[in-house]
Amino acid sequence: MTQPRTMVFSTSAEQTHEPAPRAALTGCPWHDVKSMLRSVGLRPTRQRMALGWILFGKGDRHLTAEMLYEEATKAKVPVSLATVYNTLHQFTEVALLRQVAVDGSKSYFDTNVSDHHHFFVEGESHLFDIPGADVIVGKAPSAPEGYEVARVDVVVRLRRKRSD
Fold first, then answer.
1. So where are the chain's domains?
2. How many CB atoms lie within 10 A of CB 32?
3. Cα–chain-centroid distance for residue 92?
4. 128-142 tens-digit pLDDT
5. Cα-Cα-Cα-Cα dihedral of 98, 90, 102, 132, to 10°?
6. Which helix (H) or strand (E) holds 69?
7. How many helices (H) and strands (E) does the chain have?
8. CB 67 within 8 A of CB 13
9. Which residue from 151, 58, 53, 45 is spatially nearest to 98, judged by alpha carbons?
10. ∠ at Cα 98 (94, 103), nearest 5°?
11. What is the pLDDT of residues 89-99, one digit of tens each?
12. CATH class of domain segment(s) 29-101
């Protein structure tokens, strides 16, 4: 019988994480995921390793929690949807992923954590990267006293042209 485990996570408002260094990756997804997790201070548990392998083993991707859960289920990884959500948010907090909100109710998680923007195809729920040089953000508003701009996300919504 498996003993229940309690995990306590704490984050400090002062704590910020730079994107995980991916230049030193070996090409072995299992080893690379373990190194990525350790480099940001996360313990490489079986569930984090399995979900990380699914997430990062296929290059840059955009996934919802439900999409990752479906892939994990097909790969026979025993995780709940709640665990998938928790893991995605933990990975986001340590800059392994970027969260991209496209609706009030739908967020995608992007394995490409560099500064870039996105196209979202309405009706198809497809999110993909805009090449970096194709978007120039003009003058951003000044942040209120005591705040700083963390980042600017641009999501350009697309729809298929109607044929007349």
1. 29-101, 113-158
2. 18
3. 6
4. 988 776 777 777 788
5. 0
6. helix 65-74
7. 4, 6
8. no
9. 151
10. 135
11. 999 999 999 99
12. mainly alpha
